[in-house]
Amino acid sequence: MNSSVFLHRLGSHQSPTEPACYITSDMFYLEVLMKPSGEVLDVKVAHHGEAPVVMLKNFEDFSKKLEGFSSLYHIHGDSETKIKTYLALQSLETDLMKMSRFPRPVVNNNPRIDAILHGRVGNLVPRREGNPMSIEYFITPYDQLEEQMMPGLSCYGNKVLVTVDGTSILHKLPVASLIEDSQQVENERVSLFRGLDGAVSMDLPACFFLKFPQPFPILTSFIENIQRLTGISMVGELQYIPFYELLTRAVLEQKHCTVDHLDQYFLVSLPDNHFHSYVLSQEASLHLKKPPEGALINNIPFSHPEQVPSILEILRHQSAYNTLIASCITTNRADKGSVV
């Protein structure tokens, strides 16, 4: 127990009256109930101002869950600042949950896929234990078809995690729900957000983030659109390179395939022993004034819940484009000169 506490820089103390240990931080505490023999009976977690809830009974997962809790709160400042930042995260999650319940178009017979592709905030899974709130915002046509062909199967699509993190500059963040009411406009419910006045917002050394489970290839033009939307620059963290090279390397690395050189055909098998061959090259886009560039991004900073639906719409477009191009990138390759 002490090693985990040391690794995660948390405090701890043991109950003087019962076989229980408490692991504490500025943001939350964990209550570990034990048998007299030392075996763990239960683990409960309580955030600031909230009642304890059962976390898990499997001690093997305890360290991973503890690490997840600690990673949620990389916040600068004193205890009061950290608590206010947690209130900001709570208010964001509350408004995202409200938006997730707004009516959406019914396009598929699968409510989850409709939520992913047509919901204001995708398919939202609330924060639980050491796992941040997640938003599933895109699923490929192939996975949609597979779910239709195999009832009960769930193919997981692209997602982002909703977190708050410390920053070197102040951002005005809401510390209370901003959705006051809703009204019917052209048969759709439109959220009405309160302004960020002093009663519902604070300047804090933190920012909200949509974090990707793995680096996400995105076009420069979409990055610029997101930055205009949020008013927060990501330029300092990014390295722009030709987009087709970027996406090719990312896809092949996911398939654990090394990239010797990109001047190759990718061979896609077809029925009856036929195949298509593709080559992705910046040379093919020289007719453009500026060939497309892009970057790998790990997260998207933002400061207002109203920005999330627009960000997700941009990510859906990029994901659809990436899926199309990635379908041409395979581990079956041949040099240009060897293909007739």
UniProtKB/TrEMBL annotation:
<feature type="domain" description="Mediator complex subunit Med1">
    <location>
        <begin position="14"/>
        <end position="329"/>
    </location>
</feature>
<comment type="similarity">
    <text>Belongs to the Mediator complex subunit 1 family.</text>
</comment>
<dbReference type="InterPro" id="IPR051999">
    <property type="entry name" value="Mediator_complex_subunit_1"/>
</dbReference>
<protein>
    <recommendedName>
        <fullName>Mediator of RNA polymerase II transcription subunit 1</fullName>
    </recommendedName>
</protein>
<dbReference type="InterPro" id="IPR019680">
    <property type="entry name" value="Mediator_Med1"/>
</dbReference>
<keyword id="KW-0804">Transcription</keyword>
<dbReference type="Pfam" id="PF10744">
    <property type="entry name" value="Med1"/>
</dbReference>
<comment type="function">
    <text>Component of the Mediator complex, a coactivator involved in the regulated transcription of nearly all RNA polymerase II-dependent genes. Mediator functions as a bridge to convey information from gene-specific regulatory proteins to the basal RNA polymerase II transcription machinery. Mediator is recruited to promoters by direct interactions with regulatory proteins and serves as a scaffold for the assembly of a functional preinitiation complex with RNA polymerase II and the general transcription factors.</text>
</comment>
<keyword id="KW-0805">Transcription regulation</keyword>
<keyword id="KW-0539">Nucleus</keyword>
<keyword id="KW-0010">Activator</keyword>
